[in-house]
Amino acid sequence: MESIVKTHRAFGVYGICVEDDQLLVINKSKGPYINRYDLPGGSLEDSEGLNEALKREFTEETGLTAMITEQIGAADFIFPSEWKEFNQVHHIAVFYSVKKIGGELVEPEQFDGQDSLGAVWISPEKISSENASPLVMKALDWLQNGRFDWNTQHYTSWTIKD
User: Fold this and answer.
1) Rounded to an integer, what distance in angstroms lies between the CA atom of residue 155 and that of residue 80?
2) Is 86 exposed, middle or buried (0-12, 13-18, 19+ CB in 10 A)?
């Protein structure tokens, strides 16, 4: 018997910030990327534009103030994941290059909807598909190869790290 696919669509904006050859990542506390590195960013609030959302999310999750320097592109990821009545996630992400213009890394305030335990600068050599979200891997590919692959990435399995 074939199972019915029920897809949760998640849309967000994400910032790629590099300083001294290190990528800024957050430690995820919830969702399918829990206990992995992810890019700072997230969902839009009501009546909020893409740029506004990215700047707000970036500050909420890292303590830093960001200036958007470029919209890199959009990509999406589809993978199995059990959540509520859904058994698949379709994560749609718009990527931006951002520059830190102020602030200090802080442990973020925890509130309903906050999914960051804090941000760290990490060297690319320490990032792998075992410890990072697909968004971080996409950012790394762009940083290392100078190209942005916008093709949908399908995962036949996805491991939630406990």
Assistant:
1) 7
2) middle
How far is it, in rounded angstroms, from Cα 33 to Cα 135? 10
Residue whose entry in the numeric block shows the structure tokens 């509520």: 84
Check if the beta carbon of residue 44 is closer than 8 Å to that of residue 11: yes
* Whether residue 54 has pLDDT greater than 80: yes
How many angstroms separate the Cα of 41 from the Cα of each of 47, 84, 120? Answer: 17, 23, 14
Q: Which amino acid is at 90?
A: H
8, 86 Cβ separation under 8 angstroms: yes
Q: How far apart are CA 49 and CA 130, in angstroms?
A: 32
Give the contacts of 109 (CB within 8 A, at least 6 positions apart): 60
Instruction: Note the pTM of the prediction, 2 decimals.
Output: 0.92
In the chain, domain spans: 7-154
Query: Quick check: 108 pLDDT over 80?
Result: no
Question: If one looks up domain 7-154 in CATH, what number appears?
Answer: 3.90.79.10
Give residues with Cβ within 8 angstroms of 11, minimum separation 6.
Answer: 43, 44, 92, 93
Average pLDDT over residues 30-42: 93
- What backbone torsions phi and psi does residue 82 show, to the nearest 5 degrees? -85, 120
